[in-house]
Amino acid sequence: MKILICDDHKIVRDGLKQILQHLEGMNTFMEAGDGNEALALLKKDAYDIVLLDISLPGRSGLEILQSIKSLYPLTNVLMLSMHPEEQYAIRAIKLGASAYLTKDTASEELILAIRKVSEGGRYISQSLAENFAQFIDKDSQKQKHDLLSSREFEIMIKIANGKSLLEIANELFISNKTVSTYRSRIMEKMELSKNTELTRYCLENELI
After folding, report:
1. Where are the domains of the chain?
2. CA within 20 to 30 Å of 143's CA: 35, 88, 136, 205, which one?
C-alpha cells in the first residue's frame, strides 16, 4: 500500500509514520509539507491513501481535498484534524473524504480506519454517524453556511471562535486584507453584519 502523508509539521509526519509501521505487509510512505507539494507528488505517482491535514499553510486541506477528488477520484483521502468533528467532518465527507479523524484519535483507531478505507469502505466514528443523522434531517432545508466555499467556511469558524483578522491571516499565511475580503463575502452570503451574529449562528447550528 502506498500512503502519502500531508502535514506541515514534520514531528506529526514522523509520528504518523511510526504508527503506520504497524500496518501489515510492505508499505511505502511519502511526505508532503503542504497541499501543493502533495498534488505534485500525486501527479508523479498513484497513491492508495492520502492522510491529509485540514489546517495547511496556503490552500486549506478542504481545498486540497477537492482538487484531489477532482483530479484523482479513485484516491482515498483520510482527513486528519485538531478540530472537533462537528466543525468540519460532514463538509469533508460531502467533498469526498473517506474518513475524518481528530488528531487525538488513538493509534489503533487510525490503523482500523486505514484498513477499512484501503478495502474501499469509509470510516465514520459513532459520534460522526450521529451528526450525520441530524444533518440528513436538516438537509431538506439548505442552510446558509452550505453556500460558503471551503476557505470561507474555515474563516467563518475562526471568526466565530473569536479570532481577530490578523490572527487568522497569520495562521493561514495570507494578508490581513485578504481575510477582510473573505469576511465581507461571508457576511454577505450569510446575510449578517456583526461577528456576534455570526458566532450566534455557529452556536445555534452546532458548528462551534
Report:
1. 2-137, 144-204
2. 35
